[in-house]
Amino acid sequence: MSSMFCNQCQEALNNYACEKSGVCGREPVLSNLMDILVSVCKGVSYLAQKVEKDRYEKKKADVFLLDSLFSTITNVNFDEDEIFKKIENGIILMEDLRKYLKVEWSSKLPPECLIEFHRDKSKMISEHNTLKSRIENEDIKSLKDIILYGLKGMAAYAYHSYILGKYDYELMGFMHSVMSSLLTENDLNNLLSLVMKTGEYGVRVMQMLDSANTERFGHPVPTDVYTGTKKGP
Q1: Reduced to 3 DSSP states, what percent helix, strand and coil does the chain have, rounded to the nearest 5?
Q2: Residue 227: exposure state from Cβ atoms within 10 A (0-12, 13-18, ≥19)
Q3: For residue 25, what pLDDT is reported?
Q4: pTM of the entire structure?
Q5: How far is it, in rounded angstroms, from Cα 144 to Cα 150?
Q6: In whole angstroms, how far apart are CA 219 and each of 164, 165, 174, 216?
Q7: Is 48 helix (H, G, I), strand (E, B) or coil?
Q8: Cα separation of 73 and 79, whole Å?
Q9: What is the dihedral of CA 78, 84, 89, 95, to 10 degrees?
């Protein structure tokens, strides 16, 4: 359970990957749990995109995706137990979505939709390492990583917007669709197109957050602030 391969950010050791502990301070167990959480997010999105009209059911998956992806960004969350709890909640959510969609537990579903929860973190990590061992073309993997990192950034902005009362169903539909594509799409040209589309939606989510902030707090204006020193007591 001590192995680690974390290459999710520009802080990665030697611009390659952190293999013993994270430059950011992340430990191997936490890094592996975050990998599991990302896989659970992919499974949730694969099922959620099939929920067509029921906005209540869909929104539960939307909020889970935003909160969970945001939590995996560097330096956002170092609470191992909280990440573990999000994994459990995501697996429960997938069970609920399968029941809602009347989708049987089946080998026809991507393995990420069928992740089982174990109270033993070591067992969870061991089983997920087997899941991660599927080999992909390096170019395909690189494009999928770019898309995932873009979605993480979008999740941070969209989650803050959600807290401020702004919500975009079309944006969430796009995010679920693209997360699902990370499981099913292996054509280089299609993935490159998704990279560009993710960038377009990235601009959209920044506009949404700007609108949410200004509606709640007003437009920023230059303000005089005191920059000197004060006498002590």
Answers
A1: 65, 0, 35
A2: exposed
A3: 83
A4: 0.88
A5: 10
A6: 15, 17, 29, 9
A7: helix
A8: 13
A9: 140
Instruction: Give whole-number Cα distances, 165 to 9, 158, 174, 175, 180, in Å.
Output: 29, 10, 19, 19, 26
What is the 8-class DSSP label of residue 13? G
Rounded to whole angstroms, the Cα distance separating 83 from 62 reads 17
Q: In this predicted model, what pLDDT tens digit does every residue of 104-158 receive, in sequence order?
A: 767 688 999 999 999 999 898 988 887 776 667 889 988 999 999 999 999 999 9
Give residue 1's pLDDT: 44
Whether residue 202 contacts residue 158, with contact meaning beta carbons closer than 8 Å, is answered with no
Closest CA to 68 of 146, 169, 176: 176
Find the mean pLDDT for residues 89-110: 87
DSSP annotation of 6 reads B
pLDDT tens, residue by residue, 186-199: 999 999 999 999 99
Alpha carbon distances (Å) from 46 to 35, 59, 158, 171 = 17, 14, 19, 15
